[in-house]
Amino acid sequence: MKIDVNSDMGEGFGVYQLCDDAALMQVVSSANIACGFHAGDVDIMTRMVRLAKQQGVGIGAHPGLPDRQGFGRKELPFSADQICQQVVYQLGALRAIAAAEGVRVAHLSFHAAMGNMINRDRALAQQVMQSVARIDPQLIIFSQPDTFVEQAAQDCGLPTLTIFLADRAYDALGQLVPRGIAGAVIKEESAVRARVRQFLLEGTVTTFEGQPLAVRARSILIHSDTPGSVELASIVCSEIEANGGTVAPASEVIAQ
Length: 256
Description:
256 residues, TIM Barrel
């Protein structure tokens, strides 16, 4: 079975960078590239596209709210139309950069608060997905399973790929444990390895409360800002291969 390994990348600004993007790009199969709102700028976006092209990594847009200071993790009172405009603007910018480099944007993955706001509002999810579908009806939408984003994308005829977050704790309802709670971000290599192995072999994750929870996914996410993200992504890939799978970009996973 082919499984995608993705990470949010290019989340710096100017001379500042969040992680070793070049090293991480050699490990993952899909890159979710920040599009200039919560992080990133035109130089970083171009560099990420070129690195992805060199490594054969799938290129994805990672739109977020225009909130550099809060890194896009604080919800802001934008209207549904404003959020649609923000998504369209960021996707369009990355598509233009990719086209200039002779490649295309293959997928989209929402960042933090923007994703939370869309996932909580069925009508907003539908409006955003309709806008995205008019731009590129082949764009793969990354989402967690059984969400408004996944359903709205499918309703609009967009291909979807559900993700498992290897470095974030889940609660009993399948929601992510808020980052401010101790244990919400999983940094230990042994813990990440055990979670990925459980997911691959059993299709479950152990929740924050200690109970097994079924997870339907074909892509595994490691956040680039998790300490040791390059090593953690390498662990994810090694576990996939050790258990008979193949690491592949989202487009190949969808085609399987």
